[in-house]
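[Discussion] Sanity-checking designs against the backbone

I'm trying to build intuition for which residues belong where. Below is a structure token string of 132 positions. I'd appreciate it if someone posts a full sequence so I can compare it with mine line by line.
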């Protein structure tokens, strides 16, 4: 649910993001193992309440995708907890790439040690029959 609000279908169709890879369970874990997928999960808690989650997905030797999910109320807290933790925990932090909606929680990312690499703002134009 949190991932769907951050990466809606109108955007996620273009991203290297598969919701099924982020679901827990033995069968999904077994399928990831069979496919040699490197996926690690972390949960962020505040006062014993789940406020966010992160998935680090190894996609190739040069990139790892970090997918962060949270409600808007805890978005900055989640990011400020996850980013420094992962940057100090992974072997090659320079490989981490984050796809996140433009201009959302930018300060939390930069405080955590990240920098803006590329910014893409999604736009749409509905075409009517008369415009065809």
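Best answer:
Here's mine. Compare freely.
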């Amino acid at each position: 649910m949190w991932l769907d609000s951050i990466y809606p279908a109108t955007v996620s169709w273009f991203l290297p993001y598969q919701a099924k890879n982020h679901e827990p369970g033995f069968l999904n874990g077994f399928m990831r193992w069979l496919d040699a997928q490197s996926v690690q999960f972390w949960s962020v808690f505040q006062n014993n309440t789940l406020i966010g989650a992160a998935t680090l997905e190894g996609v190739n030797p040069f990139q790892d995708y970090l997918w962060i999910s949270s409600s808007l109320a805890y978005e900055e807290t989640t990011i400020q907890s996850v980013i420094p933790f992962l940057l100090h925990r992974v072997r090659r932090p320079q490989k981490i790439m984050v796809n996140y909606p433009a201009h959302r929680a930018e300060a939390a990312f930069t405080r955590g040690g990240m920098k803006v690499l590329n910014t893409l703002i999604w736009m749409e134009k509905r075409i009517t029959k008369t415009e065809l």
